[in-house]
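Dear Dr. H.,

I hope your travels went smoothly. While you were away I took the liberty of generating a structure for the chain from your last submission, since the lab meeting agenda had it listed for discussion. I wanted you to have the full record in hand beforehand rather than looking at slides cold. The sequence, exactly as received, is reproduced here:
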Amino acid sequence: MFAKYKRVLLKLSGDILVGNRDSGIEPAAVENLAKEIGEVIDLGVETGVVLGGGNIFRGASAAANGMDRVTGDYIGMLATIMNGVALHDALEKQGFAARLQTAIFMDSVAEGYIRKKALQHLNKGRAVIFSGGTGNPFFTTDTAAALRAAEIKAEIIFKGVLNASGAALDASALALCRDNNIPVVLFKHEPGSLMKLIKGENIGTALN
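The corresponding predicted structure, in token form, is as follows:
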């Protein structure tokens, strides 16, 4: 089995971690996702991951209901770190090399994001989970994914969602991808879909 790509960035909805719950993190769902990512790593694909935080908290929704937008966005960034901690743990428990980096520095939880360290990890075959968004309010995790993809020189971004409705990239993310010639493919996350994409099967929708 051969992979079409050498280095990819996976932008995955936090809702993938919900499993059979209404919200939050279901351990079985995290374990299944870790197994899928591990299979990609085993193919020799250098893998970066950006998880959304909507399964825990949505800053934009909170702002629409009266919360200060900056406050809401920071809480949302923390939610992505929580998801990152869960995925990192699941990957390591399954024997896959991984590192968790965060744009909001918290040394007892994760490495602070440093591009050179991220590249070193990728070159050594470790998955790198990029959490904490960009570290700044007013930017979505889509934009964070586009930024990290550009920084690590990913060949492509695969954006995985449970429901493709309303899943188009925001304008900032799209502009970053266009400026850096990074294609983005939207796919419905279900068992086996990620491996099909990595092998080059045309099961997704190009967003740019």
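Two observations you may find useful: The domain at 7-206 is CATH 3.40.1160.10 (Carbamate kinase). The chain has seven helices and eight strands.

With kind regards,
E. W.
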